[in-house]
Design goal:
There is one protein chain. The chain is flat and about 65 Å long. The chain is of the alpha+beta class and about 150 residues long. The longest helix is centred in the last third of the chain and has 28 residues. Helix 1 packs antiparallel against helix 2 and helix 3 packs across helix 4. It folds into 2 domains: about 50 residues, no CATH class; about 70 residues, Orthogonal Bundle (Multidrug-efflux Transporter Regulator, Chain: A, Domain 2). It has a 3-stranded antiparallel sheet. A two-stranded antiparallel sheet has the order 1-2.
Length: about 150
């Protein structure tokens, strides 16, 4: 099995992916596709996944599909957040990111559920937007913005 965190990036296949997306949309109308000469019913869950993935790939974005309950190493989690591993460990020690220990021996490996990491990332993003909005308002009040 391939590394599930390995991003799928297809900049040279955008036209083919877009055409496939159109074919899938028309197949959704009928709820089935033909493969190997047989009609196969395509579940709504598959259509939902493809409806999210295809536009990303055609917009030149890399995509990874990760099970929500997948356990990440601290290195993988740090890479997904684009921070250093020592800083991630600090966030764990401060209780900002939930983790579990694998094994009972000292020095056991910490693991972070993908879902918990995404929850932290979402909260961090909201806090950043709120702070930026506050900073913008303060700058306006101080007259640092020019009116055009």
């Amino acid at each position: 099995m391939e590394n599930i965190l390995e991003p799928i990036y297809a900049p040279t296949e955008q036209a083919e992916i877009a055409a496939f997306g159109k074919a899938i949309e028309s197949a959704r109308t009928y709820g089935k596709i033909i493969a190997g000469g047989k009609e196969i019913r395509v579940p709504d869950s598959i259509f939902k996944i493809l409806a999210q993935v295809i536009p990303m790939l055609t917009s030149d974005h890399a995509v990874s599909i990760v099970p929500v309950d997948h356990l990440l190493t601290t290195q993988q989690a740090a890479e997904l957040l684009n921070i250093s591993r020592p800083y991630l460990i600090k966030l764990i020690d401060l209780g900002k990111i939930v983790c579990t220990k694998q094994g009972s021996k000292p020095g056991s490996h910490r693991r972070i559920r993908f879902e918990d990491l995404m929850e932290y990332k979402h909260k961090r993003s909201l806090e950043r937007r709120q702070q930026l909005k506050k900073l913008t308002e303060m700058s306006k009040e101080a007259g640092l913005y020019e009116k055009k």
